[in-house]
């Protein structure tokens, strides 16, 4: 038991020393593929401004009225599912690297990169909480 | 006989654990950023299909 724990610690340490974060776990892969599959459904609504990329690394419904009524409930539940997958993703990356306390830092890193990589015309929230069109 | 070995083992444990804490306590910002980039590219399919983004115009 102890030897096993030591080996795990050593492995985690050496993975860390190489400067890469561990991101290949089943939980991470699951969240990622669910998010990729959902993206086609959400993308048009980023473009319309109905949805925005929030500064806390989540997706927010900025303007529900911009979503056609027939789709509104579906998009709202897709956003809820997306945010739950994102929470899982941030938490699991922290855990996979042996440091659950990193979750907030990982979330902040992702929040920044989601907005940096957003297409022009999409709405993103700046550090002060204001929404801006890219 | 057993006690010095036990003490040495405990010291080794403490040394190892504190070494881990020292290494892990700093958040690897650059590694996190490149991991985030890779995951976002996958989720948004940004780099696998370079034509995916302009395709939204043609799709209609």
**What is the subunit organization of this protein?**
heterodimer
Uncertain stretches of chain A? none
Which structural class do the helices and strands of chain A define?
alpha+beta
Helix and strand content put the structural class of chain B at mainly alpha
Strand runs of chain B, count: 0
Instruction: Provide the residue-averaged pLDDT of chain A.
Output: 91
Portion in beta strands of chain A: 5-15%
> Approximately how much beta-strand content do the residues of chain B carry?
under 5%
Averaging pLDDT over every residue of chain B, what do you get?
75
Tell me the span between the first and last alpha carbons of chain B. 82 Å
Number of E-state strands of chain A = 4
Radius of gyration of chain A: 18 Å
Helix content of chain B: over 70%
Count of helices of chain B?
3
Task: Tell me the overall shape of chain A.
Answer: globular
Radius of gyration of chain B: 25 Å
Q: What is the fold's blueprint, element by element?
A:
The complex is a heterodimer of chains A (134) and B (60).
Chain A: H1 2-17, H2 26-48, E1 51-53, E2 59-61, H3 69-96, H4 103-117, E3 123-125, E4 131-133
Helix pairs in contact in A: 2-3, 3-4
Chain B: H1 2-24, H2 29-43, H3 52-58
Describe, in plain words, how this protein is organized in 3D.
The complex is a heterodimer of chains A (134) and B (60). With 134 residues, chain A is of the alpha+beta class. Chain A has one domain. Chain A contains 4 helices and 4 strands; from the N terminus they run ααββααββ. A 4-stranded mixed β-sheet of chain A has the order 2-1-3-4. Chain B is mostly helical. Chain B has one domain (2-58). Chain B contains 3 helices and no strands. Chain B has helices at 2-24, 29-43, 52-58. Mean pLDDT of chain B is 75; it is low at 49-53 and 55-60. At the A-B interface, α1, α2 and α4 of A face α1 and α2 of B.
